[in-house]
Structures are given as C-alpha cells and as structure tokens.
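We read letters as residues; the fold follows as tokens. Both lines appear below.
***
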Amino acid sequence: MTAQEFFKNDLFATNAGVELIEIREGYSKAKLEIKPEHLNAGQRTQGGAIFTLADLALAAAANSHGITFLRASGPGDTLYAEARERYTGRSTGYYQIDVTDQEGRLIATFESSVFRKKDEVPFTL
C-alpha cells in the first residue's frame, strides 16, 4: 500500500475535502479548496478546517519517519480541547491547546499564534 493510499483512509480529512498531493521522506503537501461548509460564523475559514489540513500534512511527513502521536484515541473516547491564553497583545495572541480523553490522558498538544483584526465580534461572553 502506498502512502497516498494509506492516507486516503483518513476519512475525517477526506470527508473535509483535504487532499494529499505530495509525500516524500520528511515532507508532504496537502491542499483544501475552501467551500461554504468550511466557513465559520464570521464567514472566514473555520480553524478546524485549517488544522485538519495541517494535521494530515503533519501525519504524512512525520510518519514518513515512523513518528507517532502522544496517544491514540478511537471509537468510544470523548476528547476535550482546552485552550489557554498565554499572551495577548494589541493585535496578536498566543495560545496553548491540550487535547485530553475522558480519563484526562494527554492525546495531543499544540501552540498557536493568532492575529486579531480590528473588526468587532458579533457576540458577547
């Protein structure tokens, strides 16, 4: 089975429209054509769509060397993502996100920077 064939079995990414277009040792390239179903309430690309694209590219490149995630999850698991603001500036922010399962075991972690536009958000907390 080729890597291309293997990663077509990533049904979440495939159903989201992510396509792996190149893979070689330590490198991969994936694409996602943004459609209405990929948009958030603000009519911008939803972060989950972007991260699904990035995750498939990461999986293909990382697994070309046999690297795995922190812990696997599967059917019957409930996953929780907790985002913590580590820094907030005038137009940027920095966040740490941990994904855990129903038993509190760490599944994945990542950090992200954001850029804040001056537009007002259409909701309040």
Summary: The beta strands are 19-24, 27-31, 80-88, 92-100, 106-115.
